[in-house]
Every structure is written in structure tokens, then in C-alpha cells.
Design a protein that fits this description.
Layout lengths: L2 E6 L3 H10 L5 E6 L2 E6 L2 E3 L9 H11 L3 E5 L10 H21 L4 E5 L6 H13 L4 E5 L1 E2 L2 E2 L6 H10 L2 E5 L14 H20 L2 H4 L5 E3 L6 H14 L18 E4 L5 H11 L4 E2 L13 H6 L6 H8 L2 H7 L2
Parallel strand pairs: 1-5, 5-6, 6-7, 7-10, 10-11, 11-12, 12-13
Antiparallel strand pairs: 2-3, 3-4, 8-9
């Protein structure tokens, strides 16, 4: 059972709310051709084609590419850009729309909620409500308006996620050092994987994974830069006392606390990831339907000659994804 754990969903009601109420928050909808693009702080996210909100073309592409199930989540810019007065109802509306789409095709779709982490109490309550609607967990940004995930203010949210056994899927957002990487689309090519690495490093070195030992976390884009810099982080932990102030173990000891999707775009990099963390910690991902994604993830994975047949079968078989989603 091929389960694509990284696929995006943007309901039309979400777009309509931004169009009607987003202007005071620096958000708008811009149309280039027939498809809308979300614009927040002058940065475009899109275009949002019908594949993001209509089930029929999505499932038709899943059939064509041999994907049995997609796990849907909101893409950037998420909802942190809004104040709580808009962000909270916007998150609730998204989750209601997502739950309805999943309920209509539970054989092909599952969902991860979005929550307004600019208000942690409301985010925790909304996560509990969303899980009650049948959603399997939550997708969050790698930071929340510049606040890193090891901030003490987020502890109640992670406690709630652990208690609910809700998967936490971390997607890069508002990436670090963006002023230096605006050119050449490097905010995505480099910024996204580095921000994921920052988020993961802070969860480990900040002691969050020690504090919540049953918390289930999946990292987008194959863990970003984390797997490839893990030796350097271990060295920091060894030689700098400040790096050991919160975590009980060196960073590499936490690698198997994470799951990782397959959106890495290089066969040898994927081979290295599987060798590093094990095939039971890697799940199929496509980043559907962005052009930076891997829109035929089954074929791409099958073609990786550097992977053994056992590795390919384990990942494509979806055992890790089913465990994360409690299926």
C-alpha cells in the first residue's frame, strides 16, 4: 500500500477567506491566468490549481502513478501570518473542509490538521478537536513567526500531541537567512532544507524529544540538511558545553526518533538516508502538487538502483506510514 505522507490540500473556502479578510494582515489572492496564488508579505505561494481542492483530478493522478493513499496537509504560508482573531477560525475552517474531503474518500485520503500556533492554547484545543474529526495529526511550520520549536511556550502543544498520539509533520516555513537567498530560488533550494534542519536540531538539542518520548515527528524533504550535517552537530555536542545543556544524548542518537519522507531528488542521497536511519523510518512523499516535489514517487523510488529490493519494498509497502497514522 503506497501511502504518500506529503501531499498538500487547499480548500476553496480557505482561499475565499484570505481574499475577503486577508488584506489587514498583508495577505491577498492574486490571479495569474485562471488559477489563484496566495500572497503573504509580498511572497507568492502557488498557483493553487484545482488539484489542490478537487478530489477527482487528485485521485486520477494517484491512480496513474500507483499511489494508494495521500495524507493531505496545508502548504505554506499556513495560518501564522494572521492574528488569532482570523487565524483561529481559518484553521478551524480548513480542518472542517479537510475532514469532509477525507470522509468522502477514506479509502484514498487521510488528513493532517493545521493549527494556529500563534496562540498555543487555541492550537492545542484545535488539535484535539481535529483528531476528533478523524484527522491523523498535524502539520506545523519549522518555526512560528520566527519563534523556534524548542521555545517553552510550545510545550503544552507538544504535550497534547503526544497525549493524542497525533503525528507531527514539520514543513519548512519562513526560512532562516532569507535576505541572502532570495536570488535563484534559493529560498526553496537551500532555505527549506536548512530550516528543517534547524527545527529538528532544536527539538533534539533543546530537550523536546527527551521531554516527550512518545512524540511522533516526521520531517519533510527527507529531513532537509539534518542527515548530512549530523556528524557536525555531534561534534558541536562533544566540544561545546552549551550544546549539552538540555539534551541527554548526542544529536545522532535521536535520528531514529524522526521519520523522513523521500523528497530528496538524488538517488545517492536517498541511499545514504536509508543507511543512516533505516528503511523503517522512511516514508513515501511527493510534495503534491508543487513543481519542486516528486510527482511520481512510486516510479522514482522503484528506479533507485542504489536501494536494495528489501528497502524499496519496505518503504513502498507503507508499514511505517501506517504505524504513524494508526491505520
Amino acid at each position: 500500500m503506497v501511502i504518500d505522507l506529503h501531499a498538500h490540500f487547499v480548500p476553496r473556502a480557505f482561499l475565499e477567506t484570505i481574499e475577503k479578510e486577508g488584506a489587514p494582515h498583508g495577505a491577498s489572492i492574486r490571479k495569474v491566468g485562471k488559477d489563484p496564488t496566495i500572497v503573504v508579505g509580498g511572497r507568492p505561494y502557488g498557483p493553487i490549481t484545482r488539484h489542490y481542492y478537487q478530489t477527482r483530478p487528485r485521485i486520477a493522478e494517484m491512480d496513474r502513478t500507483g499511489v494508494d493513499m495521500q495524507v493531505l496537509s496545508l502548504c505554506p504560508p499556513m495560518v501564522y501570518w494572521a492574528d488569532p482573531a482570523l487565524g483561529i477560525p481559518l484553521a478551524r475552517s480548513f480542518n472542517d473542509e479537510l475532514a469532509a474531503a477525507v470522509a468522502d474518500r477514506p479509502d484514498r485520503l487521510a488528513g493532517l490538521a493545521t493549527v494556529p500556533l500563534q496562540d498555543v492554547a487555541e492550537a492545542s484545543a484545535e488539535l484535539e478537536r481535529a483528531v476528533g474529526l478523524g484527522l491523523k495529526g498535524v502539520a506545523i511550520g519549522s518555526n512560528v513567526n520566527g519563534k523556534d520549536l524548542d521555545h517553552p511556550g510550545f510545550l503544552p502543544f507538544f504535550a497534547k500531541a503526544e497525549a493524542l498520539r497525533a503525528l507531527v509533520f514539520i514543513h519548512p516555513l519562513d526560512v532562516i537567512g532569507v535576505d541572502r537567498i532570495r536570488s535563484y530560488y534559493l529560498h526553496n533550494g537551500l532555505g527549506n532544507p536548512f530550516d528543517t534542519a534547524v527545527a529538528a536540531a532544536r527539538l533534539t538539542m533543546g530537550g523536546i524529544l527527551d521531554r516527550f518520548p512518545r512524540l511522533q515527528v516526521c520531517l519533510a524533504h527527507a529531513g532537509g540538511a539534518l542527515p548530512y550535517l549530523i556528524g557536525r552537530l555531534d561534534r558541536v555536542y562533544k566540544v561545546r558545553p552549551a550544546a549539552r545543556s538540555n539534551a541527554r544524548r548526542r544529536p545522532s542518537a535521536y535520528l531514529r526518533r524522526f521519520h523522513y519522507d523521500t523528497v530528496v531528488h538524488h538517488e545517492l542521497a536517498l541511499r545514504y538516508l536509508v543507511d543512516l536511519v533505516g528503511n523503517d523510518r522512511v516514508v513515501v512523499g511527493s510534495d503534491y502538487r508543487f513543481d519542486m516535489g516528486c510527482l511520481d514517487p512510486r516510479r522514482t523510488l522503484t528506479a533507485v538502483r542504489e536501494l536494495s529490493r528489501a528497502d524499496r519494498s519496505r518503504i513502498l509497502g507503507g508499514a511505517a506510514a501506517r504505524k504513524l497514522l494508526r491505520m
